[in-house]
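Tokens for chain A. Residues wanted.
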């Protein structure tokens, strides 16, 4: 059973900083710490995983133009300390000679079977132009490195997917015998690419692939920053995604990651119609399961905002 959940996120007014909200059912969320930052040193799109030693690891970067990926560590999700800074050599990626020195939304996943971390992020290979700003986004590709301890990493970044399409905000989860990559299709939507700017899922037999062609869209167009959590009884999957920039969150629900998915009702301005709710102005980050003891400790330390 899943006892509680943490949503580590930024806000619309304070982009790229760390805030917390919590839930006991995965559907109704309340902000912590008076809607103030959890700690000031962090920069990035928050992403947390539980690691090889039972501690939590948090990835971020100062901004997309920074060459560095910062990793923080915490035993209790309350106090964070700097763990390591990793600087990938993007131009060393095979078959990606024109990669630009830009790192978007680094994300961590610890793979229990291999006792290995995979660190993913997106990097473009074309600058945008005034006439075609979208070519920058369409050129984003998801890269990864592997690590046993988040101190030393595999020799060079590698493209995660064989297919030639823009992808951002990718994270990986193992469910059953398969690995799933939840992605944002970053090609601009048209009549000839109707899946553009939606959340899709790809499946693989191993951590690094090969990953299948991505699924049909799980979200409407112009959604990003997906997050995936299981329901308290582990029978249902909740897949959240942001309608950007900071408009609202959507939620799609399925009983397995292969679908079918349906969109839950939310943000109707009629509370009795809504199946889920989040604090106002939250922006993307990550959702993870936590114990009831960890939930109680977070609420005790930071205090809950009742809206």
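Reply:
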């Amino acid at each position: 059973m899943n006892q509680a959940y943490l949503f580590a996120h930024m806000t619309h007014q304070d982009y790229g900083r760390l805030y917390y909200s919590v839930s006991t059912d995965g559907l109704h969320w309340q902000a912590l710490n008076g809607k103030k930052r959890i700690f000031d040193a962090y920069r990035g799109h928050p992403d947390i995983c539980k690691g090889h030693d039972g501690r939590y690891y948090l990835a971020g970067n100062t901004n997309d133009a920074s060459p560095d990926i910062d990793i923080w560590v915490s035993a209790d999700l309350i106090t964070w300390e700097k763990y390591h800074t990793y600087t990938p050599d993007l131009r060393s990626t095979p078959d990606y000679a024109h990669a630009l020195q830009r790192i978007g939304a680094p994300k961590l996943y610890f793979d229990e079977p291999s006792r290995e971390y995979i660190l993913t992020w997106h990097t473009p290979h074309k600058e945008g132009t005034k006439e075609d700003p979208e070519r920058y986004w369409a050129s984003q590709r998801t890269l990864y490195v592997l690590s046993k301890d988040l101190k030393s990493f595999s020799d060079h970044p590698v493209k995660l997917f064989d297919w030639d399409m823009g992808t951002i905000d990718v994270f990986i989860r193992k469910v059953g015998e398969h690995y799933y990559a939840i992605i944002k299709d970053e090609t601009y939507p048209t009549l000839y690419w109707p899946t553009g700017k939606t959340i899709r899922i790809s499946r693989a037999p191993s951590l690094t692939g090969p990953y299948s062609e991505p699924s049909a869209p799980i979200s409407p167009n112009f959604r990003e920053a997906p997050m995936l959590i299981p329901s308290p009884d582990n029978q249902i999957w909740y897949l959240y995604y942001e309608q950007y920039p900071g408009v609202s969150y959507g939620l799609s629900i399925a009983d397995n990651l292969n679908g079918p998915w349906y969109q839950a009702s939310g943000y109707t301005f009629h509370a009795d119609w809504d199946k889920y709710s989040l604090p106002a102005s939250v922006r993307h980050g990550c959702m993870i399961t936590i114990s009831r003891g960890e939930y109680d400790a977070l609420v005790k330390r930071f205090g809950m905002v009742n809206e």
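The longest strand covers residues 167-175. The helical segments are 134-138, 292-302.
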